[in-house]
Structures are given as C-alpha cells and as structure tokens.
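Thread: quick sanity check before group meeting

JM: Hey all, I'm pulling together slides for Thursday and realized we never actually wrote out the predicted structure for the chain we discussed last week. Dropping the sequence here so it's in one place. If anyone has concerns about the input, flag it before I start.
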Amino acid sequence: MIERLQVSHLRNLSEANLHTAACNVIIGANGSGKTSLLEAVFLLSRGKSFRHHQPKRYIQHHQSAATVYAKLSDKSTLAIQKEVDATTILRLNQNTVYNQSILTEQLPTLLIDPSTMDMLEQGSASRRQLLDWLVFHMKPGFHPQWVAYQRLLKQRNSLLKQTNALNKNQLAELKAWDKGLASHAALINHYREQVFHAWQPYFAQTNTQLLPAYADQLSLSYNAGYDTDIALDIQLNERLEQDMHLGYTRIGNHRADVHVHWRSSSKAINTKPTETSKNPNTHLNADNHPNTDTGADQEKSNSDKALPVLKEQAANVLSRGEKKLLITALRLSQLPLLLNYEMPSKQKNEQTSEQNEADITTNNETRVAPKVTPVVLLDDITAELDGRAINILLSTLAQLPCQVFMTSLTDDIVPLVNKLWSKPALFHVKQGVFSLQV
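JM (edit): ok, ran it. Output follows.
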C-alpha cells in the first residue's frame, strides 16, 4: 500500500506531497488536478498515462520532466521520471532498474474511469488488456513470453511492410520467426486460458450483484486470436501471401479477445398458427430467420412452444447504464481472484483433472496470496454509476485488502466512505494544491 505519494510537474501538479490511507477521496472541481493524481499513480505502475501516451502531453509546460515517487507500507520505494523526449528513469529502493514490469509487479493498479466505459464497443485491445492484467500478476511466466512474442511480431510486420516479394534468405528468416512465434503463442494462450477459466466464476458472482436481472444471461468467452488446434507457424505460412499484401500479421495472440455474450431466456409461450408455424418443422434461429429442424421439436404443439434461445453480443442488447455496470463487474471481479488465488470449490473440483496436465508446462506454479496490495483508481465514478451500484462497488472494495483512490466533484460520497472505512483520508484540491480535511 502507498503510504506517501509525491508528484512533480505532472499537468497542474507542480509539487504534491500526500500521506495516504487505505481509502483516499479527492474532491475538487473539473480541472483542479484530482484526475492528475490518479494519472500519476497509474504512470508509476504502468509506465504510461491512461490519458495520453506522449509524455509531452502531461509534463508541465517549460518543464523537462515529470516525476512520481511512492513509499510503500513495507518501506520500499518506487519512482519514475518521464522526460519530454520519452526518456524514462525507473528506480526501486533508490536503485535504477531497466524494466517497467518490475515496478508493475510491486504496484498493481486497477483503473475504473469514464474512458473505460466504452470497452465493449471498442476494438479488442482494451478487452485483451483486461485479461492480460490478471495473467501478468498471476502467472510469472507470462510476461517473458509476451515480450518475446511482441519482439518477433514487430520484426515480422516490419519485413511484411518492406517488400511484396521475399527472397530466399528473407523467407528462411521469416520461417524461423514464425517458429518462434508459434512456440511463444502456445504458452501465452495456455496462461491466458488458465486465468480466464479461474476468472469466470468471480465474474458471474459480481455480475449477479450489479446486474441481477441478467445473472443467468451474461457469460464470457475467450478467443485466442488463431486456431489453437493447429500450430501458429503453419497458419502463418498459409496466410503469408495475404499478410504481405496487407503489410501486417492478421492472426495470433495479438488478436485475442474476450467477449461478453447475452443469451435470452427460454420461456414457453402460447402461439397461434402463422405462416411460419404452420410447418411443424420450422422455427426461428438465432437470427430470427425461419429454419427447419427435426426430432423432439416436431412433437411440440403450436399452442405450447418455447421461445428460441437467442445469443448476441451484450453490447448490442444492454442499455448505456447497464453497460457501465457490466464493465464495472468485469473489472471489480478481477480483484477477489487476484487476492484469493484459491478457486471456488465447484470450479476447483471441475478442473482437478485438467490441473495435473497444466502444471507440466507451468512448472507446478503454486497459487499463493500476493505480497503486494492492489491499488484501485476510481475516477469520477459517481457520475457514471447510480447509488445502488456505487454502494455495491465500494462495499466490495472495503472488504478486500486493497487501497482505493477515488475522485469526486462533491463530497456526497463521504458519508458512505466513512461508513465503510475506519480512517479514510479526505483531500480537497484546488488548482493543483491539495489540503487534507481533518
């Protein structure tokens, strides 16, 4: 947990020095600097901002660099300095380190903010990152494989963009890269699948709390980004001509996705014969088009039929408010899993036979509680969720061993926070200057 946080020259935060608690509420007007504080914590953890990737966009004007420093409850210290030209200096316990993942491991951050509320409609990247955040913190072997895969993918795409025809040497080089990609892809997919299956019951439980009306209708599915029954290098070779034409690699781990599906309930209805129902072999398929079927369906009378079960992307069915709740459920459900590696007993029993085989490639990884405290960043959440959802969200967070930073335009959230946390820290910020309310 962060005990002390210092921020220098990040947006309108010239010098901020805060002693923080398990729950921290930052209240201020728009543009006062409250979101910038969350941005600073995120930058320290991830090495990038969630608002702009270019450092010059968040470093104060006429300043050469922005710096974020944190002292944790275990007395360790983390620091990052971002310069205008994107040069980065990282320090752990005053020692320079050269890999952002080292700080990320020490300070896991989970962001819930307005910009994440469109992930269902956006491309696959944000949903894939949602899963990979969990995999990174739960499977130590994942990150090295992912880094190696990205390096080879970059080389492959660079070659595809350079030429429309490969000579003998280039073709041999490409095949060697594809072999490497296939090897890394298999392990990356294996890690992702394990974590995805462990995540599902936690999502179902959280979804039941936030969207009880859809408790049995929403489900997750994972798409690996390629046919996992066939080695990736074989598939890449088959698609080489098309990839060269497009100038990039179309399949692989980098195209993986997590989908949220909505499935309708099956209810018996009383119907009268129609042009469609006059034929006992005809019913509506998932696209509401007439289709023929045989077997037990033929025995159903026209007066007691079951509505067909329709399956659709949740984003196409839910309202804007319901989508916000769904995305909140996706993110919130990750914390109990991360903090409690033991799977629910039902799932554990179902996967016992699979685990023995899986452990062969994961070197018998042991699920143990993480040594670090996750930090949850809630930006202006009162503007995105209704009172009931906020109550569930904060009540859940208060029961978990995590640290919370939340922003709000008003102090309306304070009574609930005081009820759930024994000693929250309440800060007011104005023009980048923070004051602690005692």
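AS: nice. DSSP finds twelve helices and 19 strands in the chain. The first strand starts at residue 2 and ends at 10.
JM: adding both to the slides.
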